């Protein structure tokens, strides 16, 4: 669905779980993957970010940050993917909640640590590349972009030092969020398996999951395609 004023008003007043998202958005895909695990169904609205629909007055009433994803559940509106994921787990997680977001304080602290790393560090590397690229002001990732991405990979490698998942001995929402971002980064600067063998194996393990294949892989592929298109256009100038 495209975001228009008429559609916006209609969707906001009739549907239950409404997710404003884009397929090429790693945070959107992280929310969608958690939703798939929980068996939730969303109605989707897809604001055109290139045209700036996320900066419209209507959208800013939903989310003053002008970012996606945004979730509407009845009268509640929640922005920021990690907040949305935890809300969905708290309200709809049922038997999945304990495994995906363990209640043990020590384990949960490590999960939270990874989520904050994703929000504040790793995903920022995508923004640092994609924003100027989509504005036609970049011909590709800079040396600094690549260095910063590699630093992010090194942190994930450290998180995986003693296990196969980043925060526990099993899959948690930390893996889903970081996995979505890391998969998207492959279209900017691919993992070197010799430098980051644990991270490479972890990403391959996540990529084998059905929800990852159905939701995240197509989204990461689309983002890479979009970036290459804008880089090609900029290099022609």
TrEMBL record:
Gene Ontology biological process terms from the UniProt entry: glutathione metabolic process
GO molecular function, one term: glutathione transferase activity
The keyword Signal appears for this protein: no
UniProt xrefs under Gene3D superfamilies: 1.20.1050.10, Glutaredoxin
Organism superkingdom: Eukaryota
Broadest EC class assigned to this enzyme: transferase
E.C. no: 2.5.1.18
InterPro entries: Glutathione-S-Trfase_C-like, Glutathione-S-Trfase_C_sf, Glutathione_S-Trfase, Glutathione_S-Trfase_N, Thioredoxin-like_sf
Protein name: Glutathione S-transferase epsilon-4
Species of the source: Cydia pomonella
């Amino acid at each position: 669905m495209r975001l228009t004023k008429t559609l916006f008003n209609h969707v906001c007043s009739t549907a239950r779980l409404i997710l404003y998202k884009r397929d090429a958005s790693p945070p959107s895909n992280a929310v969608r993957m958690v939703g798939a695990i929980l068996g939730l169904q969303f109605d989707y609205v897809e604001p055109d970010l290139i045209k700036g629909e996320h900066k419209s007055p209507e959208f800013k009433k939903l989310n003053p940050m002008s970012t996606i994803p945004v979730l509407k559940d009845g009268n509640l509106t929640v922005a920021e993917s990690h907040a949305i994921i935890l809300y969905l787990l708290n309200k709809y997680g049922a038997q999945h909640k304990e495994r995906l977001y363990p209640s043990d304080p020590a384990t949960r602290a490590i999960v939270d640590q990874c989520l904050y790393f994703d929000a504040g560090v790793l995903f920022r590397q995508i923004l640092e590349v994609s924003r100027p690229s989509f504005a036609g002001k970049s011909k590709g990732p800079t040396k600094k972009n690549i260095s910063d991405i590699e630093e992010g990979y090194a942190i994930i490698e450290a998180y995986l030092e003693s296990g196969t998942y980043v925060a526990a001995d099993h899959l948690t929402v930390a893996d889903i969020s970081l996995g979505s971002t890391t998969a998207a980064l492959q279209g900017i600067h691919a993992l070197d398996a010799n430098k980051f063998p644990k991270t490479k194996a972890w990403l391959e393990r996540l990529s084998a999951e059905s929800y990852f294949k159905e939701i995240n892989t197509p989204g990461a592929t689309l983002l890479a395609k979009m970036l290459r298109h804008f880089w090609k256009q900029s290099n022609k100038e």
